[in-house]
From TrEMBL:
Family recorded in the similarity comment: Belongs to the glycosyl hydrolase 10 (cellulase F) family. Belongs to the glycosyl hydrolase 43 family.
Important for catalytic activity, responsible for pKa modulation of the active site Glu and correct orientation of both the proton donor and substrate, annotated site positions: D528
Catalytic class of the enzyme: hydrolase
Signal peptide: 1-31
PANTHER family tied to this protein: ENDO-1,4-BETA-XYLANASE, PUTATIVE (AFU_ORTHOLOGUE AFUA_2G04480)-RELATED
Protein name (Swiss-Prot/TrEMBL): Beta-xylanase
PROSITE patterns recorded: GH10_2
Residues annotated as domain GH10: 33-379
Enzyme Commission number(s) of this protein: 3.2.1.8
GO biological process: xylan catabolic process
Reactions listed under catalytic activity: Endohydrolysis of (1->4)-beta-D-xylosidic linkages in xylans
């Protein structure tokens, strides 16, 4: 994996640099007694850094550990003393002594206190589920017991505990519900009830769902579905906890990253909880299934006398890799919590095999910091110097229609409102291919917004394939323009010969419905029409290669067979034509939109990071014309500037780096004095390129008119 190799070289270089620095006075500050950097200080603008406390640490009996915790961590969670079996071992008999001390410790040290956990199948008292005769209780009785427990515990710490793991580990790795006593007796809604009881007990506390093996695709998809279902019921889930019980080889970082983005797409905060990395071999991956228990075998406990240097190096690299990932996504990750302070404290020494010797945490058995801590601090400092910190992040994207798949948003201000005209993705069952046949859209909706952060109104279906007399298939990226009291929708659609044409539909209202003309625009071809008004004239930009068929045309005439230029030849261009006065046809022959580099040379077809592929859009800022477009298969959203609508345009840079999913159809519009980018990604669908979700984010310009680049992987919600 390319990222892993990159981090390995960085980590080894850091170690070498530190060794050389010892001879050059690099550590003289430490020798002179100047305060060493702490994790919580290095990461303060990134995310909270937490640790799970055991009773020795809560009661400050382990003096060395307590000092390290106070210095390095700004968030704490109780490893065991706040679980239901410990708090209420018998019905009505609550034992708060240890939990009270835990909360007191956090308050005295100005730490964010996390309660773990209200509902968990594994360490729930048996009396929850049985009556005095040992028989299973009814649904009504268990609901009442759950309510009493949650209400009593959360109310006791109201205003003191920052957030609660409300439900823990309710979904199996394959995505099905765990058949726990809670599930079997109450049903799936034990989860929604638990969240409702907790919210009622402390309306201001954050409420989380927490689970292990969250990189597993089945679990990932089911957790996203669960959270969205709760949200649809009006139940807020403030955060999703990704337990970080990791190994040296599993899970893959790519799958872990997909889950970070998928969970962030729900609008919930992402927490990395229970982080540890085991070095020990095991024949099965059981995630963090506490019930797993296996016989001790010497060959499965190879490091009883210490960790070999090569394994230690591998562990430090792996932990550094994950912290690099967390820093990359610090815009959506709110907290990272280690499941224990030092190797000797870790539960992994006795799970899933009792009596082994593991090395999973940041501090060793002598409470000495491992080398990766310096690496984490340096990475955080380097990231901060680049300006990548949460405190300065004002450009947070927002999903606009979380309950449906909408893509290719064309946004305009009509009648004082924002109107958005997207294509409508759906699971058509068509096999994915380079021609884009799986993008088999069949209707359009219109959406409107009075406030960029406000409610999004769905005006429903305004045009379908069945409404278009000349229709074949595939309603792709459309746009709408206004003139003389009429709204004109321009849409690409394959005719009955499977050739893309551009059609026109008309409405008296910006929200439709739209009535299609009987024929496509004369001489039209390809896809992605964008209409730009300038000084009373309307210009259409259009075109897209590959499935968009632009490579089948030269000089507005169809070729006998498609022809793509060689890599060292000028690239295929987007097209422009002024529209006729009645807005129904081209008013002139379409021309090329030429994009040049800073030396005045046209971009070449082989310049895949910069050349045009599809998705034209034009806006005007401070007298300059900005032509933006997608590079398609390399997934950049780029822009070039010119002095008139026809260009030529000079390449300036990247507006947005690649998103999850295919390409970056988009629009840019000014509203209430600010500029916004409307676009889409495929995070909510788990990366399915044909199921995309519409988003908006604020766009910012530098004083020289260049656009500040946006991170396409930024999933935090505004």
């Amino acid at each position: 994996m390319k990222r892993k190799c990159t981090h390995l070289s960085r980590f080894m270089f850091t170690r070498l640099f530190l060794c050389l620095a010892l001879f050059g006075g690099f550590f003289t500050a430490r020798a002179e007694g100047i305060k060493e950097p702490a994790l919580k200080d290095a990461l303060k603008d990134k995310f909270n850094i937490g640790v799970a406390l055991n009773l020795q640490q809560i009661w400050e009996r382990d003096v060395t550990a307590t000092k390290i915790i106070k210095k390095n961590f700004n968030s704490i969670v109780a490893e065991n003393c706040m679980k239901s079996a410990m708090l209420q071992p018998e019905e009505g008999k609550f034992m708060f002594k240890d939990a009270d001390k835990f909360v007191e410790f956090g308050e005295q040290n100005q730490m964010k206190i996390i309660g773990h956990t209200l509902i968990w199948h594994s360490q729930a008292p048996r009396w929850f589920f049985t009556d005095k005769d040992g028989k299973e209780v009814s649904r009504e009785v268990l609901i009442e017991r759950v309510k009493n427990h949650i209400t009593t515990v959360v109310s006791r710490y109201k205003g003191r505990v920052k957030g609660w793991d409300v439900v823990n580990e309710a979904i199996l790795d394959d995505g099905t519900f765990r058949k726990s006593k809670f599930y079997n007796i109450i049903g799936e809604d034990f989860i929604s009830l638990a969240f409702q009881f907790a919210r009622a007990a402390d309306p201001d506390a954050e409420l989380y769902y927490n689970d292990f093996s969250m990189a597993a695709p089945g679990k990932r998809n089911s957790v996203v579905a669960l959270v969205k279902k709760l949200q649809s019921q009006g139940i807020k889930v403030d955060g999703i906890g990704m337990q970080g019980h990791l190994g040296l080889e599993h899970p893959s970082m790519q799958e872990f990253e997909k889950s970070i983005l998928a969970f962030a797409s729900t609008g919930a905060k992402v927490m990395i909880t229970e982080l540890d990395i085991s070095v020990l071999p095991f024949r099965e991956n059981v995630g963090a299934e506490v019930s797993a228990n296996f016989d001790y075998k010497k060959e499965l406990d190879p490091y009883t006398k210490g960790l070999p240097n090569d394994v230690s190096e591998k562990w430090n690299q792996r932990m550094g890799d994950f912290f690099a990932l967390f820093l990359k996504h610090s815009n959506v990750i709110n907290r990272v919590t280690l499941w224990g302070l030092s190797d000797g404290d870790s539960w992994k020494n006795n799970w899933p095999i009792h009596g082994r010797t593991d090395y999973p945490l940041l501090f060793d058995r002598q409470h000495k910091a491992k080398p990766v801590i310096d690496e984490i601090i340096k990475m955080a400092d380097a990231d901060l110097k680049k300006g990548n910190n949460r405190a300065n992040t004002t450009r947070s994207p927002r999903y606009l229609v979380p309950n449906d798949y909408m893509a290719d948003p064309a946004a305009h201000v009509f009648e004082g409102k924002l109107y958005i005209y997207p294509s409508h993705d759906w699971e058509s069952g068509v096999e994915e291919n380079d021609n884009g046949d799986h993008f088999n859209m069949k209707d359009y909706h219109v959406f409107s917004m009075q406030d960029i952060n406000g409610e999004v109104t769905d005006h429903g279906v305004v045009l379908t394939v069945k409404d278009i007399p000349w229709a074949g298939r595939q309603l792709w990226d459309s746009d709408v323009a206004f003139k003389n009291g009429k709204y004109y929708m321009y849409f690409p659609l394959k005719d009955r010969n499977d050739i893309f044409r551009i059609g026109v539909a008309i409405s008296d209202k910006p929200y439709g419905s739209f009535i299609s003309e009987k024929h496509p625009m004369l001489g039209s071809y390809s896809i992605d029409p964008c209409v730009f008004e300038d000084n009373g004239k309307h210009y259409m930009y259009f075109g897209g290669i590959w499935g968009g068929q632009l490579q089948r045309y030269r000089n507005n005439k169809a070729l006998e067979s498609a022809a793509t230029p060689a890599d060292d030849e000028p690239s295929i261009c987007s097209k422009i034509a002024q529209l006729s006065d009645d807005m129904m046809e081209f008013g002139e022959q379409p021309r090329d939109i030429v994009i040049k580099d800073k030396d005045g040379k046209p971009l070449l077809q082989g310049d895949t990071q910069r050349r045009f592929f599809e998705a034209s859009w034009v806006h005007k800022y401070n007298g300059k014309y900005y032509f933006s477009y997608s590079t398609g298969d390399t997934h950049n959203l780029c822009y070039a500037t010119g002095d008139n609508p026809y260009g030529p345009f000079v390449y300036q840079g990247v507006i947005m780096t690649p998103v999850v999913g295919w390409t970056t159809h988009h629009s840019i519009v000014e509203y209430n004095g600010k500029w916004y980018l409307f676009y889409h990604d495929s995070v909510p669908s788990g990366g399915k390129t044909w199921l995309r979700s519409m988003k908006v984010v604020e766009l910012e310009y530098n004083p020289d008119g260049t656009i500040k680049t946006l991170d396409g992987m930024n999933q935090s919600e505004g």
